[in-house]
Amino acid sequence: VDTTLYSSIGHAYDFVTKQFQFQLPAPLANGTHKAVLTAGPAADSVTFTVQAGFVQITTRGGFSTRWSQRTILGVVEGGSIDSVKLVRNGIDSIAAPIVNKTYTVIVPLVEGTNTLQAVVRDSSGTLRVSDPIIITRIIDHAPVAVARALFADATTVTLTAANSSDPDSQTITYEWRDDPRTPLGLTGQTGSTAVASKPTQAGEHFFGLIVRDPNGNADTTTAYFTITETGGLEAPTIASNPEWARRARVYFLFPKAASATGNLNGAALRLPIIKQMGFNVVWLMPVMKNAYPIDQGYGPGYNIVDFYNVAPEYGTNQDFKNFVDQAHALGLKVILDVTPNHTSRFHPFSVDAHAFKQASPYWNWYQHATDGSNTNGLGWGTDADGFVYYGGFGEQLLNYNWNDIDARTEMINVYKYWIQQFGIDGYRFDVYWGPHRRYGEVAMGKPVRDALKRIKPDILLLAEDDGTGSGTETIYADYVNAGINGGVDAAYDFKLYFNQIRGFQWSASAVDNLHNEVNNSGYYPGPNALYMRFMESQDEDRLYAFAPYYDANPEIAYRKTMPMASVLFTVPGFPMIWNGQEVGWGYGIAGAKEARNRSTINWNAPGGTILAPHYQRLASIRGAFNAFATQQFARLSSSNGIVYAFARPRNGEHAIVVTNFSGAQASATVTIPASALPGVADGTPYMLSDVYRDSSWSVQFTASQLALPVTLPAYGTSILILAGSARTVEITPISGVEDERWISEVPTEFGLLPNYPNPFNPETVVSYHLPAGQAGLSVASEVDLRIYDLLGREVKVLVNREMQAGTHRVNWNATRTDGSSVSTGVYLVRLQAGGKSATQKIVFMK
Description:
Blueprint: E1 13-14, E2 19-20, E3 31-39, E4 42-50, E5 55-57, E6 63-65, E7 69-76, E8 83-88, E9 92-97, E10 102-108, E11 112-121, E12 127-129, E13 133-137, E14 148-152, E15 156-160, E16 173-178, E17 193-197, E18 203-212, E19 218-227, E20 233-234, H1 243-246, E21 250-253, H2 255-258, H3 264-268, H4 271-276, E22 281-284, E23 288-290, E24 304-310, H5 317-329, E25 333-338, E26 342-344, H6 348-356, E27 380-382, E28 388-390, E29 397-399, H7 405-422, E30 426-429, H8 433-439, H9 445-455, E31 460-466, E32 480-481, E33 484-485, E34 490-492, H10 494-501, H11 508-519, E35 530-534, H12 554-560, H13 562-568, E36 574-578, H14 593-598, H15 608-624, E37 634-635, E38 637-638, E39 643-648, E40 653-660, E41 666-673, E42 686-690, E43 695-699, E44 705-712, E45 717-723, E46 738-739, E47 751-752, E48 764-770, E49 779-789, E50 794-804, E51 806-812, E52 825-833, E53 836-844
Parallel strand pairs: 6-13, 21-22, 21-36, 22-25, 25-30, 30-31, 31-34, 34-35, 35-36
Antiparallel strand pairs: 1-2, 3-4, 5-7, 7-10, 8-9, 8-11, 11-12, 11-13, 14-15, 15-17, 16-18, 18-19, 19-20, 23-24, 26-29, 27-28, 32-33, 37-39, 38-41, 39-40, 40-45, 41-44, 42-43, 42-45, 46-51, 47-48, 48-51, 49-50, 49-52, 52-53
Helix pairs in contact: 7-9, 10-11
């Protein structure tokens, strides 16, 4: 027991009842003790707390708080005593009545150590004193650093720290610092203002500031300014989001499903492919240690018991750091899923609060009373100890209380930790709507944003909450009410998903409804409010489970999702796809939705040959053109209601998107008014480039409009850029995956096209025509495309399956079927389909 050993005590074991009962020869002091029982090779231990004495303080001490006062609980064993005094630091005392041998005292706290003892006189007049407890009150005396760009002239930018402050009104000093990303020559400047040479490169430029008071307390902040394309200066506010967030193409990755190993190192192998696919953001499901090992069913990572360490089944903290570093090396940002709404009931805070109830310093860190804020239909639940949770989640996930300043500070420190230690680029806040509705932005959203943006201003904060319906604007940093801004940059477009996407009917009226939902009546809370659009997520079943999308022919099922993806990747806001969506994962998988949604993905699933090139082009195009990073959006008139057309105006480089929601080839005339595209004038020649299909042609506006004839294949897409010159997007085909972009007219001739490049090292693209056999989703026949050496020996099978009529592309990376590299030399490509064949030579040259 503690450090005392008791041995030769086998007589305390009862062989009949199989119980061991041993009374210690001396009483234990109040406090926490540990007992270890050893019997032969086996051992077990238990930790317990002793509280005894004539007068006791039952509130547990040994903690720090930012509250100016604490409620202290205690008991008195004497039956006739009616009052008690709480003495602080042996000086101050506060009297309180005793009711049923218990007392409650609210004690003001001084800064630093507060040693508290309860004192009573018993019936004989003897002074009785409790064991002491210690509570430490923290008051932050550090100054607050605030830096921003003030103005710029032709050659310099002036920075100011004038809004920095000190809580004790002391004089502060300044130290400006360069940021290694964009050095500005600031190091060594020490005034409240600093001057930097004006960067010639457009974009975001970062800098740092440290302020100190005379006592050595210090604070550090990082800030940035933007040089526009025209050379102007933009200074961000607390509501601003970075350029990469406005251009976000988010890939949502679940490590358990990403590889056979199911860990972070296995998931990291997907990063180069995600980059090649055209995405710039990876969103990871929670990686922190859970109450039970993270699984692919009902425990995907939200039952967190340790907010500071990676779950062992995922690897180590260093493995996560390596993951982030690898992503950054590829130019990918990483945002991490976390749970502001709750902790696990098995988290140490909860365990302590359950054990000691109101006597625990963590009791008030949890919700203990229901209110009218739960409007999500999940219902309330309360466990046996009075902890509140959402009934739909179960009592393992207990609601966190952001009104408690200590609980709030602890969770903000958690969020700082993952940014400062691992370099992550933001968060997705799970069940953000919970604390938002319970406590408001003043308790969570605003303090979290204010704290995190000061240490890394170019982060993205995404809320799992309604982001487009009436009243949802309060969560955005763009929205200010009574001086309080919201906390996040982005939120979900749940209305679009539930009202339109899941039940879409492929009709003209469905297209109208889709547009109305996407447009959200043209409303945005502000210029930085981002709507996240998605077709699949970790919480909902795959689209193929819903009748409108499912088809007995998987190829048709995959293609039915393509026009909706085209829309979500090109409308305002930003798109997200759930891992495996690009290979059609989930189709044909039976069982619960978790089996379709979270099972280990076969990245060679057949849907990938159709969907992956589509998503790659969509993501790459969105990232290449600034028009898609704005909120400008206008529907265009289409003569065919099933063909949806809209413009994304941006002066000098306008985008026009046309999608066919029909299962058959469709033609339409899209009318583009000059008024929808600022700067466009009649009689001026423009180039209209279909960057989805790699074609360009000259056009002119007449009578302030352009009548654009389009013909799209079933579920086909055109993404057009109107500019003064032709535009293209360079796409590197994904190794081993065909690029099935459909051209406006299905080819009439069978044949191989010249590969490009040729000679090549290490990859080349092989293109071929399959003529139409019937209208719509026609299948030419079984297609066989293989590589041979000059001796006729097979090197690799590129395609061997039924293919639809059209122009197809597949790349070869100079490897054999077993993955080994081929030697320099000449090789043959042979295409066979529909009883026809074609062969051509290609040259691999190292």
